[in-house]
Design a protein that fits this description.
The complex is a heterodimer of chains A (about 100) and B (about 240). Chain A is an all-alpha fold. Chain A has 4 helices and no strands. The chains are: A mainly alpha (about 100), B mainly alpha (about 240).
């Protein structure tokens, strides 16, 4: 259960940077007014940010992951989240067996 | 609704994410101790840094001598999206006290934030709902990494059961919940295409900001027409 001072320092540093990014956005928003364009931009943020995080993982790893992602999207338009989760995991395992 | 009910509703809403987070958290714990961090350090990092994507990238770069500058830079690049997320969510925190607001930002994660945004579109986002979902994920993630660190490398390969795909599937499920009209599709296409291309062409995690920026710009352009005075959708009786 050792706590190495260098590791602790580095964890503190990474925590500080992360915390700054977390609080930064709320601080900025406390002092701006939005027109329609900016409002549209903000409404789109959840989709834009999540897609940007997700798309490379889904599209650039290989066919099994990409196909499973497509199926999860189709299922996700109708089914609850647990169903999407299970379907996606089952599909990726099957596709990896068949396609590799 | 009572505070306790709202808190429970938040934790319940995010439960599929918790299920997806457990195997990933276990994996992080085992990787972290295999990289030379102690069990206590691994747990501490999960409690304080609490950012899954960054923690995986950081642990990958952890070595001797410790790459201080590189890690600080990586933390900034991987997490700069939080600024956008916080700015967007900040508009829905009217019912929060200043302390709740800034304490709540500590719990900001992709998934917790997406649930809060979705909730805010249907009803007022209460602090109880936000902290219910946020603390449930924080607790699951940190205890999961602790258990993974304790088990060490005795765990099997998560890819064998598709667990490595769990977060992708949950992300997709969250994303589809945001669908409203063709503009959503345009944002999705722009963000997805740009982030995938930048990921292939540029090192580090710049692809997140590049993709996000592309989608946001497309949305701003598509909504610019709302500013013209003859645009009366929603004002005329139908």
């Amino acid at each position: 259960m050792a706590l190495d001072p260098h590791n602790l320092l580095l964890i503190a540093l990474v925590t500080a940077v992360t915390l700054a990014t977390r609080v930064g956005g709320a601080l900025i928003m406390a002092r701006v007014q939005l027109g329609p364009s900016a409002k549209g931009a903000f409404e789109a943020m959840p989709v834009a940010v999540m897609t940007a995080v997700l798309a490379p993982a889904a599209l650039t790893q290989g066919w099994p992951e990409a196909l499973a992602a497509v199926i999860a999207i189709v299922v996700g338009l109708r089914a609850p989240m647990y169903v999407v989760l299970i379907t996606g995991m089952v599909c990726v395992v099957l596709f990896r067996m068949w396609l590799s | 609704m009572s505070v306790r009910k709202e808190f429970a509703a938040g934790a319940f809403a995010i439960s599929p994410v918790l299920a997806a987070a457990v195997p990933i958290a276990l994996l992080f714990g085992t990787l972290s101790v295999s990289k030379g961090l102690s069990i206590a350090e691994t747990f501490l990092m999960s409690i304080t840094v609490y950012a899954g994507a960054l923690q995986f990238v950081a642990i990958d770069q952890w070595g001797d001598p410790l790459p201080v500058g590189l890690l600080a830079f990586t933390a900034l690049v991987v997490n700069i999206r939080h600024v956008l997320m916080g700015a967007s969510l900040g508009r829905s925190l009217g019912g929060f006290s200043p302390l709740q607001k800034y304490a709540g930002m500590f719990l900001l994660t992709d998934e917790g934030w997406a649930f809060a945004e979705q909730r805010a579109r249907r009803a007022a986002l209460t602090p109880a709902f936000y902290f219910g979902s946020g603390l449930a994920l924080w607790f699951t993630w940190s205890t999961g990494t602790l258990v993974g660190a304790l088990l060490g490398t005795g765990l099997g390969d998560p890819a064998a059961f598709g667990f490595d795909f769990a977060f992708t599937a949950v992300f997709i499920a969250i994303l589809t919940g945001f669908w409203s009209n063709w503009r959503t599709g345009a944002v999705l296409l722009a963000s997805g295409a740009v982030s995938a291309l930048v990921k292939l062409a540029v090192p580090d995690a710049w692809y997140i900001m590049a993709g996000a920026a592309a989608g946001i710009i497309v949305a701003a352009v598509l909504h610019a027409e709302d500013e013209t005075p003859n645009h009366t959708d929603g004002l005329m009786p139908s």
